[in-house]
Amino acid sequence: MKSGSESLSELVTQATDFDPKASRAAPxxxxxxxxxxxxxxxxxxxxxxxxxxxxxxxxxFIRNFSYDLLLGLNEVELGKQFKxxxxxxxxxxxxxxxxxxxRGEHVTVLYRVRSTEKEGEWLGRLVLGYEKGxxxxxxxxxx
Length: 143
Hints:
By secondary structure, this protein is α+β, with helices and mostly antiparallel strands. It contains seven helices and four strands.
């Protein structure tokens, strides 16, 4: 380290080998994250979605949704699914991770899900990406 002539900003940059200008210039893209980094977010969020769906907790269910997804939601239809949908309210808390698909600026995480009341298996899909520097849910569905 040089004598005391460096600014605090210079010292932090040197100590962390971090270039804040380069960081701001390049937009974040989730496809650049490792599978481990993606799944560390996706799996707990998937658990939360299932828990809140089963409990009919709409406000908590949409907590990590992107702004664009929230704007596009038909709250009346979603409310009907929460109230009347057997599958939406009877999901098993146990699921199987199937894989990830990277495309553009989003990652799709796929799950095999089951119902506690209906026989069979369904495909769960969680689409993640960055919005204003934070990872958000851009789509979540079971079909």
